[in-house]
């Protein structure tokens, strides 16, 4: 199966896809994301703004499946809730126009739960109905897949054939201890003056706990509401990018370019997928 990975980021869809298809092209305008994608997958995504993608270029890929994670800010709890009026929805709107002219056989979209019931959700559903495609709206959280992380997401699975029913696994979350680095990065500990100012607003967890809150793209800059912080005998620290990657189910061999800043790594992870959950969503299209 020939697959287009749109808003490709770290390549989460490619990881979730495994050997069930081949990504013939990936698209993302973020240089850090594309460098990370190339390092881990060996292919450099096309740095073209999707809002200007020509129909001829799209059709030249002859892709049967579109996998996409459009920007969630227009629909997320802490966003501006402008939906399709948000400028960050321009690429999605253009893709919906291309879909109207040249629809694929299958499409899977991932976004925050606020996408459900939005004007973007309604537009997508209208496009799918117009082309006689079957649609299933799914909701899932990594905490049901054995991962101690709360990251509820919605997946819109569409195909020209009915979806294959896949139950949620409902695996109990494992302790955070199994996701931590063997050697701590001491620079991740919060300074006393920072801790004194923000302590009561932080979500604190310990290694034996079996939960953590959703890590957002601003985790490297923000404190309150950006994700959990680990409390140890030495103090309170951020989770490292490697630890967040494990909590998202990324493979152990996943790497960032050495020159990439800490904030850039957190941003890419915050905009990424939970790989086991995305793989489960794809299971509704494919037999494993």
What CATH architecture label of the largest domain applies? 3-Layer(aba) Sandwich
Sketch the major β-sheet: 6 strands, mixed
How many domain modules?
Answer: 2
Low-confidence stretches: none
Whole-angstrom Rg: 19 Å
EC number: 2.1.1.37
Protein name: DNA (cytosine-5-)-methyltransferase
Catalytic activity: a 2'-deoxycytidine in DNA + S-adenosyl-L-methionine = a 5-methyl-2'-deoxycytidine in DNA + S-adenosyl-L-homocysteine + H(+)
Keywords: Methyltransferase, Restriction system, S-adenosyl-L-methionine, Transferase
Question: How is this fold's topology laid out?
Answer:
Layout: E1 2-6, H1 12-17, E2 22-27, H2 31-41, H3 55-60, E3 65-68, H4 90-101, E4 106-111, H5 119-130, E5 134-140, E6 153-159, H6 192-198, E7 203-205, E8 228-232, E9 235-238, H7 241-247, H8 262-270, H9 275-282
Parallel strand pairs: 1-2, 1-3, 3-4, 7-8
Antiparallel strand pairs: 4-6, 5-6, 8-9
Helix pairs in contact: 4-5
GO molecular function: methyltransferase activity
Keywords: Methyltransferase, Restriction system, S-adenosyl-L-methionine, Transferase
EC number: 2.1.1.37
Account of the 3D structure:
With 288 residues, the protein is an alpha/beta fold. The chain folds into 2 domains: 2-170 and 274-282, Vaccinia Virus protein VP39 (Rossmann fold, 3-Layer(aba) Sandwich), CATH 3.40.50; 176-268, DNA Methylase, Chain A, domain 2, CATH 3.90.120. It is built from 9 helices and 9 strands. It has a 6-stranded mixed beta sheet, sandwiched between helices. A 3-stranded mixed beta sheet has the order 7-8-9, with no helix packed on it. Strand 3 (65-68), helix 4 (90-101) and strand 4 form a beta-alpha-beta unit. Helix 4 (90-101) runs parallel beside helix 5. The longest helix is centred in the N-terminal third of the chain and has 12 residues, at 90-101. InterPro entries: C5-MTase (IPR050750), C5_MeTfrase (IPR001525), SAM-dependent_MTases_sf (IPR029063). Belongs to the class I-like SAM-binding methyltransferase superfamily. C5-methyltransferase family. It catalyses: a 2'-deoxycytidine in DNA + S-adenosyl-L-methionine = a 5-methyl-2'-deoxycytidine in DNA + S-adenosyl-L-homocysteine + H(+).
């Amino acid at each position: 199966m020939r697959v287009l990975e749109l808003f490709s980021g770290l390549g989460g869809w490619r990881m979730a896809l495994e050997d069930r298809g081949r990504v013939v092209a990936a698209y993302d305008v973020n240089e850090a994301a594309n460098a990370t994608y190339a390092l881990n997958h060996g292919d450099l995504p096309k740095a073209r703004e999707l809002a200007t993608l020509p129909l001829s270029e799209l059709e030249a890929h002859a892709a049967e499946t579109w996998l996409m994670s459009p920007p969630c800010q227009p629909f997320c709890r802490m966003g501006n809730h402008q939906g399709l009026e948000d400028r960050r929805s321009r690429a999605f709107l253009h893709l919906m126009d291309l879909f109207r002219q040249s629809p694929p056989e299958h499409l899977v979209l991932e976004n925050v739960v606020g996408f459900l019931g939005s004007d973007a959700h309604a537009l997508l559903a209208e496009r799918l109905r117009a082309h006689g495609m079957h649609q299933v709206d799914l909701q899932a959280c990594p905490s049901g897949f054995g991962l101690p992380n709360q990251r509820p997401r919605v997946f819109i699975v569409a195909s020209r054939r009915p979806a294959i029913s896949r139950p949620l696994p409902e695996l109990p979350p494992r302790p955070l201890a199994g996701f931590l680095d063997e050697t701590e990065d001491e620079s991740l500990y919060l300074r006393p003056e920072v801790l004194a100012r923000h302590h009561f607003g932080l979500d604190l967890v310990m290694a034996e706990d079996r939960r953590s809150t959703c890590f957002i793209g601003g985790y490297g800059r923000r404190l309150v509401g950006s994700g959990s912080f680990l409390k140890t005998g030495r103090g309170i620290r951020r989770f490292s990018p490697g630890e967040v990657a494990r909590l998202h189910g990324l493979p152990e061999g996943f790497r960032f370019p050495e020159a990439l800043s800490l904030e850039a790594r957190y941003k890419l992870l915050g905009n990424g997928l939970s790989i086991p959950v995305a793989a489960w969503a794809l299971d509704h299209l494919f037999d494993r």
